[in-house]
Amino acid sequence: MLTFITILIAIIGVFLMVVVLIQNPKGGGVDANFGGQAATQLFGASNSIDFIEKLTWGLAAALFILCVIAAIIVNNYAGAAGGPELLSR
């Protein structure tokens, strides 16, 4: 289970980096280098900004939640396996 969550964290991290790089630093929407014209035609000028921003927040929230879940799983596993003794190895 922890391996699956770790893989999900890595995938979401990569997607989050891509989505952040797609954003225009001036808040103008999707950057032209990453298909900005196609995204503008597909979503419209204002909707592409909303979509990318919502996607960024959604991925960040998912990453945060998965990291908390992974920490809880590791903590429970360490507690069941001996707690501090496991950490000192």
Explain this structure.
The chain is mostly helical and about 90 residues long. About 80% of the residues lie in helices and about 0% in strands. The mean pLDDT is about 75. It has one domain.
> How many helical elements?
4
- Low-pLDDT parts are none
Secondary-structure element order, as H and E?
Answer: HHHH
Q: Name the beta content range.
A: under 5%
- Binned, the helix content reads over 70%
Present the secondary structure layout.
Blueprint: H1 2-22, H2 36-43, H3 45-80, H4 84-87
Helix pairs in contact: 1-3, 2-3
Question: Which characteristics define this entry?
Answer:
elongated, 0% strand, mainly alpha
In short:
The protein is an all-alpha fold and 89 residues long. It has helices at residues 2-22, 36-43, 45-80, 84-87.
